[in-house]
Structures are given as structure tokens and as C-alpha cells.
Amino acid sequence: MASDWLLEAAAQYNEQSLEGRDGYPAHILMPVDTLAQILDWAFQSLPDEILVGMDVNPDLPHSREVEKTYCGVDFESGLFSGQGFVLGEPHLVNRGDSYSVHHVPEEWMDGLFDKERGVRGGRFSHWLHT
Fold first, then answer.
1. Of 82, 70, 10, 46, nearest to 1 (Cα)?
2. Is residue 66 part of a domain?
3. What is the C-alpha to C-alpha distance for residues 55 and 128, in angstroms, rounded to an integer?
4. Domain of 37?
5. 10 in any annotated domain
6. Secondary structure (DSSP) of 14-36
7. Measuring CA to CA, which residue among 58, 129, 39, 43 is closest to residue 93?
């Protein structure tokens, strides 16, 4: 469960995003508990950096209210894979220095755990690098 400080920061970020929605051609939604997990991994990994892979949750489309509220004048659909869906479970893929963290380890590409490693077997639709 997300801490109060993170919930407050997320609410402020969402307010700023709403105010600036005309400056964004698209938006992506991440559950605050997902962000809390990623931040926890990042802090535990210091001084190293981390690489996190995520796919969207195909069972969790954006609500019509969110789409209507956050779509600005320059909004474009179909800009990226999974647009219109909330991000799903995060997966810690790699940890290391700023150079090596970008490399996806071979064991993530071996095809044994495709369902756990994204719809494309380690090639997630969304990546986050701290």
C-alpha cells in the first residue's frame, strides 16, 4: 500500500497533468501501488540503477471519464502499444550501473517464462529506467 506522502505527490502530479493536458499527445496510467513498488526497488538498489518492464493490463481499460478529462487538444490515439489501458504488474528486469542496466539479461530472453516476462517474452511494451 502506498504511503501518504506518495499518495499526496501522485494527486499533485495528476492535478498538474490535468492543467497541462493540452501539451500532451497521449497519457498513460500507472496505479500508485505499482509506483510504490518501483520506488521501493529503486531505493533498495541504490547506488545501482534498475530497469523495470511492464505491459498494460488488457482487463483494465481507462475509464471514459478519465479519457474525457485528460485528453487535450493535441490528443492522438494509437501512438503506442497498449494506449488506453492501465499499466499492469511491474517486473524488475535488471540492476546495475548506468551502462549495464540497459541490457536485458539473457535469462529474460530464454522463452521459458513468457507469461511472466511480458507478452513478447521479455520484450515488455513499456520500460522504466531509474
1. 10
2. yes
3. 11
4. 23-129
5. no
6. HHHHHHTGGG-S---B--HHHHH
7. 129
Q: Cell 502530479 maps to which residue?
A: 13
Q: Is residue 87 within 8 Å of 28, Cβ to Cβ?
A: yes
Q: What domain count does the chain have? A: 1
Question: How is residue 27 written as a grid cell?
Answer: 497519457
pLDDT tens for the chain, 130 residues long, are 789 999 999 999 999 999 999 999 999 999 999 999 999 999 999 999 999 989 899 999 999 999 999 999 999 988 888 899 999 999 988 888 877 777 666 555 555 555 555 555 557 788 888 8
Pairing of strands 49-61, 85-96: antiparallel
pTM above 0.90, yes or no: no
On whether residue 29 sits in a domain, the answer given is: yes
Spell out the residues 6+ positions from residue 107 whose beta carbon is closer than 8 angstroms to its own: none
Q: Which residues is 129 bridged to in the sheet?
A: 51
Q: How far is CA 11 from CA 69, 82, 93, in A?
A: 15, 23, 28
- φ, ψ for residue 21, nearest 5 deg: -55, -25
**82 touches 51 (CB < 8 A):** no
